[in-house]
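FORM 7B: Structural annotation worksheet

SECTION A. Query
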Amino acid sequence: MSKVVLITGASSGLGQALAQQLAGKGYRVYGTSRQPRSNELPYQMLAMDVRDEASVRQAIAAIVEKECRLDAVINNAGIGIAGPLEQTGLGNIEKVLDTNVKGPIRVIQAALPHLRQSKGRVLNISSIGALFGLPYRGV
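SECTION B. Predicted structure
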Protein backbone atom coordinates (compact mmCIF):
# COMPACT_ATOMS: atom_id res chain seq x y z
CA MET A 1 0.00 0.00 0.00
CA SER A 2 1.39 3.40 -1.00
CA LYS A 3 2.10 5.95 1.72
CA VAL A 4 -0.17 9.01 1.74
CA VAL A 5 1.62 12.35 2.09
CA LEU A 6 0.25 15.87 2.55
CA ILE A 7 2.51 18.74 1.45
CA THR A 8 1.45 22.31 2.18
CA GLY A 9 2.59 25.00 -0.20
CA ALA A 10 3.00 22.56 -3.09
CA SER A 11 2.02 24.85 -5.96
CA SER A 12 5.58 26.05 -6.59
CA GLY A 13 9.18 25.94 -5.45
CA LEU A 14 10.41 23.37 -2.95
CA GLY A 15 6.91 22.10 -2.15
CA GLN A 16 6.19 21.38 -5.79
CA ALA A 17 9.58 19.70 -6.28
CA LEU A 18 9.02 17.49 -3.21
CA ALA A 19 5.53 16.57 -4.37
CA GLN A 20 6.75 15.61 -7.84
CA GLN A 21 9.68 13.62 -6.44
CA LEU A 22 7.53 11.67 -3.97
CA ALA A 23 4.78 11.05 -6.53
CA GLY A 24 7.43 9.70 -8.89
CA LYS A 25 8.50 7.24 -6.18
CA GLY A 26 4.98 5.89 -5.81
CA TYR A 27 3.68 7.92 -2.87
CA ARG A 28 0.07 9.14 -2.92
CA VAL A 29 0.72 12.87 -2.68
CA TYR A 30 -1.74 15.63 -1.88
CA GLY A 31 -0.40 19.12 -2.32
CA THR A 32 -2.10 22.21 -1.02
CA SER A 33 -2.32 25.85 -1.99
CA ARG A 34 -4.69 28.68 -1.16
CA GLN A 35 -5.75 28.72 -4.81
CA PRO A 36 -4.75 25.44 -6.47
CA ARG A 37 -4.45 25.43 -10.22
CA SER A 38 -5.72 22.53 -12.26
CA ASN A 39 -2.39 21.79 -13.93
CA GLU A 40 -1.44 18.37 -15.17
CA LEU A 41 0.52 17.29 -12.12
CA PRO A 42 1.46 13.79 -10.94
CA TYR A 43 -0.26 14.56 -7.64
CA GLN A 44 -3.57 16.01 -6.53
CA MET A 45 -3.85 19.63 -5.42
CA LEU A 46 -6.34 20.69 -2.74
CA ALA A 47 -7.40 24.11 -1.52
CA MET A 48 -6.03 24.90 1.93
CA ASP A 49 -5.20 28.14 3.68
CA VAL A 50 -3.04 27.32 6.69
CA ARG A 51 -4.32 30.52 8.35
CA ASP A 52 -7.88 29.14 8.34
CA GLU A 53 -8.54 26.26 10.74
CA ALA A 54 -11.72 25.19 8.91
CA SER A 55 -9.84 25.07 5.60
CA VAL A 56 -7.10 22.94 7.15
CA ARG A 57 -9.56 20.50 8.72
CA GLN A 58 -11.59 20.25 5.51
CA ALA A 59 -8.55 19.40 3.36
CA ILE A 60 -7.27 16.78 5.79
CA ALA A 61 -10.74 15.26 6.12
CA ALA A 62 -10.97 15.01 2.32
CA ILE A 63 -7.66 13.15 2.15
CA VAL A 64 -8.55 10.74 4.95
CA GLU A 65 -12.03 10.16 3.51
CA LYS A 66 -10.52 9.19 0.15
CA GLU A 67 -7.42 7.31 1.34
CA CYS A 68 -8.52 6.07 4.81
CA ARG A 69 -5.10 7.10 6.13
CA LEU A 70 -2.46 9.79 6.34
CA ASP A 71 1.18 8.76 6.71
CA ALA A 72 3.12 12.01 6.56
CA VAL A 73 2.72 15.76 6.64
CA ILE A 74 5.30 18.12 5.18
CA ASN A 75 4.66 21.67 6.39
CA ASN A 76 6.21 23.73 3.62
CA ALA A 77 3.80 26.65 3.14
CA GLY A 78 5.31 29.96 4.10
CA ILE A 79 5.50 33.61 3.21
CA GLY A 80 8.05 36.33 3.65
CA ILE A 81 8.10 40.08 3.43
CA ALA A 82 11.10 42.20 2.56
CA GLY A 83 11.84 45.67 3.75
CA PRO A 84 12.96 47.63 6.77
CA LEU A 85 11.21 46.51 9.94
CA GLU A 86 10.38 50.10 10.86
CA GLN A 87 8.35 50.40 7.65
CA THR A 88 6.60 47.05 7.91
CA GLY A 89 2.99 47.29 9.02
CA LEU A 90 1.87 45.27 12.01
CA GLY A 91 -0.83 43.63 9.88
CA ASN A 92 1.82 42.25 7.52
CA ILE A 93 3.87 40.99 10.45
CA GLU A 94 0.81 39.25 11.90
CA LYS A 95 0.12 37.61 8.51
CA VAL A 96 3.68 36.21 8.40
CA LEU A 97 3.46 34.87 11.95
CA ASP A 98 0.00 33.40 11.37
CA THR A 99 1.19 31.63 8.21
CA ASN A 100 4.69 30.55 9.24
CA VAL A 101 4.21 29.80 12.95
CA LYS A 102 0.55 29.12 13.62
CA GLY A 103 -0.10 27.53 10.20
CA PRO A 104 2.05 24.44 10.76
CA ILE A 105 0.59 24.08 14.26
CA ARG A 106 -2.95 24.08 12.83
CA VAL A 107 -1.98 21.42 10.28
CA ILE A 108 -0.25 19.24 12.87
CA GLN A 109 -3.17 19.47 15.30
CA ALA A 110 -5.66 18.48 12.59
CA ALA A 111 -3.48 15.68 11.20
CA LEU A 112 -2.14 14.19 14.42
CA PRO A 113 -5.01 11.77 15.16
CA HIS A 114 -4.57 10.25 11.69
CA LEU A 115 -0.78 10.24 11.90
CA ARG A 116 -0.93 8.39 15.21
CA GLN A 117 -3.03 5.65 13.61
CA SER A 118 -0.46 5.13 10.86
CA LYS A 119 2.58 5.87 13.05
CA GLY A 120 3.21 8.70 10.61
CA ARG A 121 5.71 11.53 10.53
CA VAL A 122 5.78 15.33 10.40
CA LEU A 123 8.45 17.33 8.60
CA ASN A 124 8.51 21.09 9.16
CA ILE A 125 10.39 23.17 6.61
CA SER A 126 11.57 26.64 7.58
CA SER A 127 13.76 29.37 6.15
CA ILE A 128 17.47 29.86 6.53
CA GLY A 129 16.35 33.13 8.11
CA ALA A 130 15.48 31.07 11.17
CA LEU A 131 19.20 30.48 11.75
CA PHE A 132 20.51 34.02 11.29
CA GLY A 133 19.23 37.42 10.29
CA LEU A 134 18.98 38.38 6.63
CA PRO A 135 19.11 41.92 5.24
CA TYR A 136 15.64 43.47 4.89
CA ARG A 137 14.05 40.40 6.46
CA GLY A 138 13.34 41.64 9.98
CA VAL A 139 10.27 39.42 10.26
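SECTION C. Observations
The chain is about 40% helix and 15% strand. Residues 30 and 44 are 5 Å apart (CA to CA).

SECTION D. Sign-off
Analyst initials: ____
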